[in-house]
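Section 5.1 Outputs to date
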Amino acid sequence: MMDFSRYLKDYPDAEGRFGNYGGAYLPPELVPAFQDIAKAYWTVSQSSQFISELRRIQKEFQGRPTPVYHCERLSKKLGLGQIYLKREDLNHTGAHKLNHCIGEGLLAKFLGKKRVIAETGAGQHGVAMATAAAFFGLECTIYMGEVDIEKQAPNVARMKVLGAEVVPVTAGLKTLKEAVDAAFEDYLQNYRDTIYCIGSAVGPHPFPMIVRDFQRVVGVEAREQFLEMTGTLPDVVVACVGGGSNSIGMFEAFLGDPVEIVGVEPLGRGEQMGDHAASMRYGSEGVMHGFNSIMLKDPKGDPAPVYSIASGLDYPSVGPEHAFLRDIGRVQYDTVSDEEAVDAFFKLSRYEGIIPALESAHAVAYAMRRVKDMDHGSILVNLSGRGDKDLDYVIEHYGFGERYRDFPVRK
């Protein structure tokens, strides 16, 4: 196994690469802007004043640290293994996204920018960015696909109440990939007074590094809390993967430990192109949105159409660090279908009183699958967001979960 004691210093390298992946594939006019962001980040990330202010905001405004919770009833129903949750749904705004949005907001102030732009799929990044913009007194524009706007009405309303302009994207499949396209177009025209605060561990360098670093708080807290609760480390650490921000933040703290780490992608409706967004399983190396990683491609080599019941997971690529961690064999990647995710959504709600985001329900579903075959041990899941935003959609398509009212205890 790789020696991970220097991992954060060695990756990414000076060109923003994790092995073969990452980099910055940019129009010439944007190169100086991204270099300025990288230089500013390297400066502020070493500043005790910046770090102290970030920690103060995390504690007083975000409500960090979020707790680790033992799903005792759900675990008992499934078998002998134990499921634990890192409760990022209790972070202010209801998801992990505010972790990097606050950091990016501080960075924007340091750079003297007056405006932030972002894309969003499930709406959680959009809400978090609008919240950070309100906190720091910045103008805010959020790009969101029309399909996702219809699915995520509560989050759209929250963004508007917070003062953000929400711009519907009508191109292509009208989902997350097209929202990123539109945000990049805006940034190309307005980079002098604007910073693009990308919503996941994707995009040109230095964004995968910046998002990773601001999200590390999740895994650092979880590892410390789990050791305090149980006296040992979990056997398996699990998180859902779309672009990969919540998962990379969770995984980093455990890379050097004797712990299995699993990222869970959306299998959606099945294995055919356009029915899933499982980049790691069905994709190949390619460049999109300014970075090189594993991506789903159509027959022409362009980004393939993707789908997931979870709007925050329907992205045709994955963060470059995830691709690297898979290649070196440190993190495994598996898939969960829509049906499994909805099953987990209702069962976590019924047995623990916790309504998860559909994105997070993919990770819970994987843990439920694994724990049934465990004679002992534990699984720690990053519950990356709460499910308020998904209730209208789930009720419309699945009712109130009558078919999930109970399930058998392991014999």
